[in-house]
Amino acid sequence: MKHRIVVLGAGYAGANAAARLDRRLHPADTEILLINADAEFVERVRMHQLATGQDLRPRRLVDVFAGTGVQVLIAKVDAVDVERRTVTVVDAGGPRQIAYDQLVYALGSTATDRAVPGVTEHACHVTGKQYALQLRSRLADLTAGATVLVVGGGLTGIETVTEIAEARPDLRASLAARAGLGDWLSDKARNHLRRAVDRLGITVYEHADVTAVERAGVVTGDGRMIPADVTVWTAGFGVHPIAAATTLSVCATGQIVVDDTMRSVSHPDVYAVGDAAFAPGVTGTPLRMSCASGVPSAHLAADVIAARLTGDRIPANRIGYAGQCVSLGRRDALVQWVTPDDRPKPSALTGRTAARFKELICRTAAWSMSHPTGMLPTRRRRVLPTAASRTRTGG
């Protein structure tokens, strides 16, 4: 019986993990199964572009992994039983169980309402393709002079509001930030950001703690009403609840707690990568939810799994940050250079140069998904008999 590795989720982290495992392990010994609910890879870093009317190139997962040893199953993950080492999925044939020898959990994150009333009923968000298309439809229905309010002053909120303001200058775009606008940035980057929002005519409400979302706008903690014809919620991201429903050790956010090899601290057969993992970086500081964390954590997990199965040396955790890339529409951006533990340096790229750099990063990430083997050399090693000797339960 082949050693079966099941990867849940085919976002940046999951797809990269599956592809790298395929390049590290010999197909005679291993079976790699990638399970995803959507038939296409979704460029999540471009959802604000999709929402404003730009079309993205489709990338079907079966085409992406054609010719590789990765099997693709389009199905919804319904549950995980880490004691029996099985995953329950639902596809066109109904629910069924799939057994695994090792699991790579990469189900990622989605919007969370932070217990703020009205978010689910009245707000749009951009955490996935279907949600971005819903916002796109709402924006298309707006007439000149209508107000769009983006709640959340982080990277996603800034990219979304500037994209809307540039694509639809006939609308009144506004941003509600819980703290100061870009207050985590260096002086140079923060000043450029403020000039950009002024140029685009964006109204910014700083230190606005939104406590309720209503049909006609939002209410803040100090009782202010900020009007909006459409509200876009980017003020919080949370992980899927599947992991928290298991006996896996999870943190307060529901992320799986892993060691510095991306291995679950409670279940050694489980690895978590990307947004789903509460993981340390090279400095010991927990990694933030981002593509910049997802891809390196996926590469590390795949290399560690391969090393443990083949008796090779366990690689060190060297995951750290270099910069934060923030698009400000299609022709402007900023790149804040940071320390490995994500603290801002004084220097930053701005303007068209930064926009070209950000676009290069996005295209490179998309290219890596369309060419999962990339430039990585093939070093497929045989699995040690002792590693493949466990007996699976389930189908």
From TrEMBL:
* Gene3D superfamilies named in the record: 3.50.50.100
Stored InterPro entries: FAD/NAD-bd_sf, FAD/NAD-binding_dom, NADH-Q_oxidoreductase
* Keyword field contains Oxidoreductase: yes
The record's section on Pfam families has:
Pyr_redox_2 (PF07992)
Cell membrane among keywords: no
UniProt entry keywords in alphabetical sequence: FAD, Flavoprotein, Oxidoreductase
Q: Where are the transmembrane segments?
A: none
Q: Where's the FAD/NAD(P)-binding domain?
A: 4-283
- What cofactor does this one take? FAD
What protein family does this chain belong to?
Answer: Belongs to the NADH dehydrogenase family.
- What is this protein's name? FAD-dependent oxidoreductase
